[in-house]
Please model this.
Amino acid sequence: FIYLLNSNITLGKNGVPVAENFRLEQSTIADTVQAGQVRVKTLYLSVDPYMRCRMNEDTGSDYLRPWQLSEVADGGGIGVVEESQHHNLAKGDFVTSFTWPWQTAAILDGDSLQKLEPQLVNGRLSYFLGAAGITGLTALLGIREKGHVATGANQTMVVSGAAGACGSLAGQIGRLEGCSRVVGIAGTDEKCSILVQEMGFDAAINYKKGDVAKQLRELCPGGVDVYFDNVGGDISDTVISQMNQNSHIILCGQISQYNKDVPYPPPLPPDTEKIQKERNITRERFLVLNYMDKQEASVLQLCQWIQEGKLKVRTSRFTAFQSMMNGGNIGKQIVSISK
Model:
């Protein structure tokens, strides 16, 4: 079975993705595995906010290629090798790729796959799509490369989209890296409770209730030093208005803007931009793919924290892509395909 971008969707229409944007087809794959290739069974697929950009004719990013109509969708995935003609991969090996096709089975170029070591995550393979994969790397390297976090500096970090895959990790990593206070922003009381009780956040704000600016002032009386921005929009404007001189924005994502026809990253409103410039607040786009030379050491650090219980991991499994874009997930959103 394969998932494709539906050729019957209305061109030029922006909005929230729905099931009708995709279609499921039954197909067959080649009988023969060529030299350098492997036949794999798909175990897990990752769904991530950036995929919404790939549904546009112009993704707004040089590194993202748009999906074409009737093309098999792809993204992060994990599978097991069932047959191999590749010198470094054998039957039974677990492998992953950033460009895994949304198929139950596939024949792939072995050089495009990375072999996984399940013992690093206590056998929880799906973690390699989240906390020990590109999501965890984004949180860790974003903080290290753009957050300017220093142990003993008494810094306060705020994380928007804090109950999402990256945000839930970023807050925990911010604390592990040296922040003295971490405050999350999420969209339900349940999410806020989980952030504080399970993820170790000091406090969390439900942005759908009450005055966010007032709550933020009360929870961050010394202002905000580091802002891990996953959402953009009005929430980010509110946080930026309370940031300190020479503070830092880690521009990870702008999920509130992905269903709109705007450039990425979207420009700040004039009043917010004025605050940013007057207070010398850095706001730089962060792309984890630019730091792949630090991947191996960073993954080992993430796996160590997971094994030590210092990094708590949550995953959600249901109507994955639609739910994620609507904020239905807590932690990483994973599609379980096979066992």
In short: The longest strand covers residues 74-84. Residues 3-12, 255-262, 319-327 have pLDDT under 50 and may be disordered. Residues 4 and 127 are 25 Å apart (CA to CA).
